[in-house]
Amino acid sequence: MLRELHISNLAIIENIDIELAPGLNVFTGQTGSGKSLILGALELLLGLRGGGGDAAVMVRPGCREARVSGLFEIAGADLVERLGGALDQPLTIDEPVLITRRVSAAGRSSVSVNGLPATAGMLREAGQMLVDIHGQHDQQFLLKPANQLAILDAFAGAGESRRQFAETLAELRQSQRRLAELRYSEEKRLDSLELYRFQIDEIDSVALHPGEYDEVRARYNVLRNASHLQALSARTLDALTDGDETVLERVGALQQCGQELVRMDPGLAGFAAQLAQASELLGDAARSLERYQDALDADPSQLAEVEERLDVLNKMIHKYARSAEPGGDPVEAVLEYRRQIGLKVEQLEADAQTLGDLDDRIARSTKALAATGKRLTALRSKAARRLKPLIEDQFRELEMNEATFEVALSSRSADDAAIDSSGLDAMDFMVRTNPGQEMLPLRKIASGGEISRIMLALKTILAGQDQVTVLIFDEIDANIGDRLGATIGQKMRALAHGNRPGVKSRPADVQSAKATATSDGDAQADPNCQIICITHLSQIAACADHHLQIRKEVVGKDGSAADSADITDGAGRRTVAKVRVLTGEQRVQELAEMMAGTSATAATITHARNLLTPSKRAKGTACPRGKPKARPDSRAACPAAR
Fold it and tell me: What are the residues whose beta carbons fall under 8 Å from the beta carbon of 263, sequence distance 6 or more?
């Protein structure tokens, strides 16, 4: 429920704190006193009225911003979970939720929930879960066919069937999407499969192995330069070993000189050792070069073979190793590409089998969906037949004697692409308010007073299935008389206290333990719902559990009440709205003034007191305007005097 509402700097509201109670809360006051501002503040708080220029004009002149805060108590773990999801923050069932909306005079708007920022979209979604406002057609929860269908399903006890339908539909849609993807890409799939198989065959046919490229390229360079290598090798060997004064001979002579020097000067032993080492190294080099020359093969056929292999490797690398890392083995990159396309071929070949499997799966899911949808439709049809007389009984009690109600259900086939997780049915609550008119969807009813009464009738029957426990009625008393006002007041009070037609009563022990004694000795169940009603009718106001009066005052600079006799030039005066809780004689006086204006007479005061005292009302009283009038019957009794 909405426990507290704080409004500051909104139009003529300067700063008010409103404490609300469970049950029926009624706001009364003179025309223009600011009652509509309470509704406007709630719409602003719940995101039903956006920011920008439209909201900026509501900021009190001379103030930088207007602020509305609401403290909500949340009942039910399911609602707490859904609300937390909408607001993107964890909530607990034992902690209230504080929502604050600020609107600056420049049109900027901000939202916070429990001190954390939230978006306007999050606020609107949460607002629809928390409060149901009746008075603005486009914001009413029950006017949306999707919400009507959900409530009918709850009334029908069809929750499990609906869950099964949603799960089956999700499986079907997933299979259909996968099948569509495969069929859409079938030609591309076949082309890709053909290409990948060709590439695999091409790579496999050349039998690559890692490191091969460097080996073949080195061998090719040797074979291509074999003649030149032989000539250079021969010349080098000749210089080292053949002819007069070869390098080895000259180094040998130098080595002998070194040995002679050491005999004369032992300090040159290191030099002599270096010459000996050089002689040994040159000898080793000559022998290695001789072996190399002997092994060198200048066979042209071998060169052609190596050159051909190198061409093959270069071709494979150019085609399939474009992703090779610099300095890496290009043949390894080709083999990695081969592994990747091998996996793709396996997937594409599996897709061909999947096409058949998906066709079978879709057929099974469609059959199961049709069966579940048919079962769901049957439950809804049965519930619709049961709901019709209950609603029409409520219409008659609300003096809509000629009004009729229907639940229009139209079913579609399970393979219709337009169906959603709610089932095979499209649905509308249909109403005809007067004979000769056509049945119209509830959302197209034009009269604010009629639609509020219809909503009250629907809420009276369906309240047990609707998780929104804060209901606000703004236009419900439009164009109705005293008797109907008493009936509406009683119904709203009964709805707030959980007394609904067609709903099983609580066990006697529980009911007595949770009952509240009233002034005529009757017992009412403790409120399990909160209703906020803005009304001009005393018969409705008399049924309130909590009566609040909104009044407009002119105050001076210091905030004290300002009389026009005291301040004649109007300097420093301002108009503010005030709210107070009415009890006892204050409430009697307010009801009397609602009937007769500020000039309430003894008769109207007596009549107001009778509205709050069922035993007095049973005897009947004179009409406050002096004209005899039959009093409402006992059904209009509202034992609400507090």
Answer: none
pLDDT of residue 115: 92
Q: Residue 492 domain-assigned?
A: no
> pTM for this one?
0.60
The DSSP line for 406-466 is EEEEEE--TT-TT-BTTBSEEEEEEEE-STTSPPEEGGG---HHHHHHHHHHHHHHHGGG-
In a domain? residue 226: yes
Q: What is the DSSP letter of 475?
A: S
**Residue 283 resides in a domain:** yes
Asked if residue 308 belongs to a domain, the reply is yes
Please name the helix (run of DSSP H) or strand (run of DSSP E) that holds residue 36, with its range, or none: helix 35-45
Question: How many residues are present in the chain?
Answer: 642
**At which residue do the structure tokens 């070194």 appear?**
258
Cβ-proximal residues to 155 (8 Å cutoff; 6+ apart), any chain? 383, 387, 461, 462, 465
> How far, in Å, CA of 533 to CA of 637, rounded?
18
Number of domains composing the chain: 1
Contact yes or no for 548/579 (Cβ under 8 A)? yes
Q: Work out whether strand 65-72 and strand 97-104 pair parallel, antiparallel, or are unpaired.
A: antiparallel
What does the pLDDT look like over 234-282, one tens digit per residue? Answer: 667 666 677 666 777 777 777 788 788 777 778 888 888 888 888 788 8
Q: Which domain holds residue 282?
A: 211-328
Asked if residue 330 lies in contact with residue 215, where contact means CB atoms within 8 angstroms, the answer is: no
How far, in Å, CA of 120 to CA of 115, rounded? 15
